[in-house]
Every structure is written in structure tokens, then in C-alpha cells.
Design a protein that fits this description.
The protein contains seven helices and no strands. By secondary structure, it is mainly α. Helix content is 67%, strand content 0%.
């Protein structure tokens, strides 16, 4: 289940939902599918843009999104303890630091 941000909740509330429950269910399913692929936002799920092949990222972008998500959750789980985070991910501390810089993660914002 993807975690919803404030922007995602705002998009859900702002939408008119002309299709009512059926439309909401389809959007929820799209959101889950997109989250599994590391794609898009709730607004993309509502508009359907996240499923358009022209808008899908390439393999590198998908891998980077997946790494951002995994590293971010691991940092949160281990309360910012980088040695524990690296061990949980099965990588070295130096590799973790390099990935954090390369992926543009803000450790302090995650905590």
C-alpha cells in the first residue's frame, strides 16, 4: 500500500469524482500499480497520466525511484543510524553514502 502525502490527500479531496465509488476504486488501483513501479503521484493516478507509456521513466529512472524508496524507508526505520541502515540494506556504509548523494536524498527530511 503506497503512503499518501499531503499533496496526494489534497488531490483526492479536490477531485469531483463524477464516477463516484467506481472511479475512486479505479484511481486507487492505478495508484497501487504506479507505486509498485515507482511512478507518479495521486494526481497522475486521477488523470491517468501515470499509465501512459510516453510518461513512464526508463529503467534507470525506475531503479533510482526504487532505491530512493528503499533507502528512505530504511533510514526512517533505523532512526538515521547509518551503520544499521547500511547493514539492513546489505551494502557498505560508503556505498550507502554515495547512493544518498547520487539520488539526492535529504536524510534530515526523512527523519
Amino acid at each position: 500500500m503506497p503512503e499518501l502525502s499531503e499533496a496526494d490527500l489534497a488531490a483526492l479531496i479536490a477531485h469531483d469524482w463524477p464516477g463516484n465509488v467506481r472511479e475512486l476504486r479505479q484511481v486507487a488501483e492505478r495508484c497501487v500499480m504506479m507505486a509498485k513501479q515507482g511512478l507518479g503521484t495521486m494526481q497522475d493516478a486521477i488523470s491517468g497520466a501515470g499509465l501512459d507509456p510516453a510518461n513512464r521513466p526508463g529503467l534507470r529512472e525506475a531503479v533510482a525511484a526504487f532505491e530512493r524508496q528503499m533507502i528512505g524507508k530504511a533510514i526512517q526505520t533505523h532512526d538515521g543510524r547509518m551503520d544499521d541502515t547500511a547493514a539492513a540494506l546489505g551494502i557498505g556504509r560508503r556505498t550507502l553514502n554515495e547512493k544518498i548523494v547520487k539520488l539526492g536524498l535529504d536524510k534530515d527530511a526523512l527523519l
